[in-house]
Structure formats: C-alpha cells, structure tokens
Design a protein that fits this description.
Elements (H helix, E strand, L loop, with lengths): L1 H10 L6 H12 L8 H10 L4 H38 L2 H13 L1 H10 L4 H10 L4 H26 L4 H28 L1
Protein name: Cytochrome B
Pfam family, one: VTT_dom
Keywords: Membrane, Transmembrane, Transmembrane helix
Length: 192
C-alpha cells in the first residue's frame, strides 16, 4: 500500500499542476500523510531547475500551514479524547510533567523533526497537545522546513540530477548529524 502511495505521489511531479500537487502533499504530510514532499520536489526541480527556489518556497509555506493543522489536531483532539482517558487512569500528573519537559525542549524537537527523517507530523501534533507556544512553533517550523527544502533545492539547482542519490540516501543522515552536533555544541557551551 505504501509503495502504491509513493508511486502515485511521484507521478504527480509530471502533472501540469505539479506545484499545486506539491502544496497539497506538503500540507497534508505535516499532519497525516506518510509520504514526504521531497518525493515531488526532487523530480520537479530536476525537470525545471530555474524554478528550484519557487518549488522550495511552495513546499515551505504549505508545510508550515499543514503543521498548524497538526498543531490544532493535537490541541483539540487531546482535550476531547486524551485528557479524559488519562484522568480516568490517574495519569494526568504524568502527562503534565511530560508536557513541561517537551515544551522545555520544544524548539529542538520541532527543529529536529523539521529537517531530519523523523516524521514532522508527530511533532506538530505533540506541539499542539502540549500547548507549546504557537509563536515558537511557527518560527521553528519556518526555520526547520526552510532549511530542509531550500538546501534540497540549492543542491539540485547547483548539481542537478547527479546529486539526487545523495539527497535521497544520505541527506537525512547529514541533517541528523548536523542537529546532533548543534545540540552538542549548545550543551557544551552551556556547561562550560
């Protein structure tokens, strides 16, 4: 099933309204859809490198707007469903402690999920669920998704199709290593 969904998503890159299809995929990927917008972005940019940054911009805007939908799902569905269940189980205090810890690290959680292969939709929903400040969520989402989409666009614009394999196989790992090094550097500065 996932392979068919992947193939269908990839086929949208050839559609005359591919930019709109990218916007829809980027929007719904941020809250419910399992296929990342990169699957559309890469062939679209290879086919039209002069539109690389427009394509990245469309993916960024749609993804952040979709992230707001994920945030709303977390904020409103948790109140309606999750909280009464946790209260009945006597776990309200444990969830309050988790919420505080998540929000203390919220910037890093959103940044990490926004640039790495970790599902961004999980963090968008958790951000709403834990009532992360909306401004922090939006700013970090713009930073993270902008980094991801514009780096992909810049690499494809500069190097074309030969860099595709690197992006598909190793860029997620590179982003993950970058985040680990960045967090490590901040932790080192903080404790020294």
């Amino acid at each position: 099933m996932i392979q068919r969904l992947y193939d269908w998503t990839l086929s949208l890159a050839q559609h005359p309204h591919a930019l709109w299809a990218l916007a829809v995929v980027a929007f719904i990927e941020s809250s419910v859809f399992p296929i990342p917008p990169d699957i559309l972005m890469i062939p679209m940019i290879i086919a039209r490198p002069n539109r690389a940054f427009l394509i990245a911009f469309v993916a960024l805007v749609a993804s952040v707007l979709g992230g707001l939908l994920g945030y709303a799902i977390g904020a409103f569905a948790f109140e309606a469903l999750g909280q009464p269940i946790l209260a009945a189980m006597g776990k309200t205090q444990a969830m309050a402690e988790f919420s505080d810890r998540f929000n203390d690290l919220g910037f890093w959680a959103v940044l990490t999920a926004g640039v790495t292969p970790f599902p961004y939709k999980v963090i968008t929903i958790m951000s709403g669920w834990t009532a992360m400040p909306l401004g922090t969520f939006i700013a970090t989402s713009i930073l993270a998704r902008g980094l991801r989409f514009f780096i992909v666009a810049a690499l494809l614009w500069q190097f074309g199709a030969p860099v595709r394999v690197f992006i598909e196989r190793r860029l997620g790992l590179m982003f993950t290593l970058f985040i680990v090094l960045l967090v490590g550097a901040f932790a080192l500065v903080r404790y020294i």
